[in-house]
Amino acid sequence: MSKIHVTTVVNGDAVEFLADPRETLLDCLRDRLGLTGSKEGCGTGDCGACSVRLDGTLVCSCLVLGVEAEGKQIETIEGMADGATLHPLQRKFIEHAALQCGFCTPGILVAAKALLERNPDPTEEEVRFWLAGNLCRCTGYDKIIRAVLDAAAEMRQEAA
Amino acid sequence: MRYHTPSTFRDAAQIAAGASGVTRFLAGGTDVLVQLRAGAVIPDDLIDLKKIAGVYDIARTGDGGWRIGIAVPGIALGAHEALRAEWPGVVEGMELVGSTQVQGRATLTGNLCNGSPAADSVPGLVAAGASVEVTGPDGQRTVAVQDIPSGPGKTSLKPGELISAILLPARGDHAGDAYLRFIPRSEMDIAVVGCAVSLRLDGDTVTEARVALGAVAPVVKLVPAAAQAIVGTALDDAALDKLAAAASAACAPIDDKRGTIAFRTEVAGVLAKRAAKIAYSRAKGDRA
Ligand SMILES: Cc1cc2nc3c(=O)[nH]c(=O)nc-3n(C[C@H](O)[C@H](O)[C@H](O)COP(=O)(O)OP(=O)(O)OC[C@H]3O[C@@H](n4cnc5c(N)ncnc54)[C@H](O)[C@@H]3O)c2cc1C
Ligand code: FES
Ligand code: FES
């Protein structure tokens, strides 16, 4: 199987890798680039643990081929904190204890960030619908939703 | 697996026509990749159509309709205000497909060509009277959407043929459409029954209607008898009952863990009534 050379930008850095055309973007991020923050929960688009942004659009990286990343901009969880400074969503997840095992957390953070850029003041229902494709087997979701709403309030500079 | 990135539909058709093994086109990939990962369908040739110019465009056609590119994902369709204002039923059908993440990739064309009887965007397209532009190695033809699915997982496209655009007709005045599905939860599930209604009014009277049902037969079905039940009426209770009866009579569903034959047959009638009422109020100018 001949591999294809892919040049792309991940979290602002130009990167290149060789991909078998059957490999997903998730496989390439984890196994070729060592970015293991994006998780594989299902591999079939159901759980959202692999969520990344592709040219700004929220997608499941398990449903994108690595070769489709050619010439694109990719954002992953690894690009969310600014050096040692956590993103408000990351901080609020810790404050609200919005994670237990943490497997779903990177995907939820990436998805929630995409939501708040589009809609800085979402209702609880809007948050729940937006995150319907991010499954969590531990928390029961309530703390996750509260953390997102609280982060949104802080980012709008309102106390929740 | 050979991965191709043709730059024209004609080239894509030629690659497909020349391929001897399992061939798939890649639009959003939300069906293709799931089938690939499951080992259900491992294509010998995978033809990615997203490098073809114009595949992400939504454009007004000369006759006042719309031409929708084959790679336009659900999220872009939903963000297009003018299209949503004219064809809210088509847009809401597509928006029911999967999660936010799936919406970032999944397309109308892929939903249609995957051939699922439960495909959520297809009843809306059929009710709208949409067609598709088909490109083959020898040229192009236009085909009504309801003539594309030919059985579960199958289409009437010939080897080497592919869809190069979805075409919606001009909406015209005093018209509305709607799509509803039944699922046991509120998100992320496959339709047990889906129903789309598109209609036009003259005053309070329905002058034209199209009714389409999903997940109650091997293919999405246009149901002329259901449309006839409401044409010439003001959608009064008697007309709605006839519509429901005609919709239920058109059902030939499977019996499975997600819905029995009796349940799907009854729900088809219920959804037809509800979708007709929404389409009617939209035709009256209701923007919801
Ligand atoms: C988590 C999840 C949830 C989902 N939920 C739903 C749901 O609620 N409702 C629903 O209806 N579907 C659902 N789906 C299925 C899928 O997302 C839809 O069918 C989607 O619209 C497929 O579009 P695509 O662009 O991703 O297709 P692709 O996977 O790219 O292609 C699908 C098929 O169409 C063919 N094809 C693609 N483009 C063309 C073309 N131009 N000409 C000819 N053939 C072509 C391909 O060869 C392939 O056979 C879900 C999928 C996932 C992973
Ligand atoms: S691993 Fe991609 S959605 Fe579950
Ligand atoms: S914290 Fe364990 S899956 Fe969400």
Tell me what you see in this structure.
The complex is a heterodimer of chains A (160) and B (288). With 160 residues, chain A is α+β, with helices and mostly antiparallel strands. Chain A folds into 2 domains: 4-79, Roll (Ubiquitin-like (UB roll)), CATH 3.10.20; 88-159, [2Fe-2S]-binding domain (DNA polymerase, domain 1), CATH 1.10.150. Chain A has helices at 25-32, 88-95, 105-118, 124-130, 142-155, and strands spanning 4-10, 13-19, 51-54, 57-60, 73-75. Chain A has a 5-stranded mixed β-sheet with strand order 2-1-5-3-4, with helices on both faces. Chain A is globular and about 50 Å long. Chain B is α+β, with helices and mostly antiparallel strands. Chain B folds into 2 domains: 2-116 and 131-168, Uridine Diphospho-n-acetylenolpyruvylglucosamine Reductase, domain 3, CATH 3.30.465; 175-283, CO dehydrogenase flavoprotein, C-terminal domain (Enolase-like, domain 1), CATH 3.30.390. Chain B is built from 11 helices and 14 strands. Chain B has helices at residues 9-18, 32-37, 74-78, 81-86, 88-95, 100-103, 108-113, 122-128, 224-230, 237-249, 261-283; strands at residues 2-4, 23-26, 45-48, 58-60, 66-68, 131-136, 139-144, 149-151, 154-155, 162-168, 175-182, 193-202, 205-214, 221-222. In chain B, the strands form 4 sheets. In chain B, strands 4-5-10-6-7 form a 5-stranded antiparallel β-sheet. Chain B has a 4-stranded antiparallel β-sheet with strand order 11-12-13-14, with helices on both faces. In chain B, helix 5 packs antiparallel against helix 8 and helix 9 (224-230) packs antiparallel against helix 10 (237-249). At the A-B interface, strand 4 and helix 3 of A face helix 2 and helix 6 of B. Residues 40-43, 45-50, 60, 62 of chain A line the site of one FE2/S2 (inorganic) cluster.
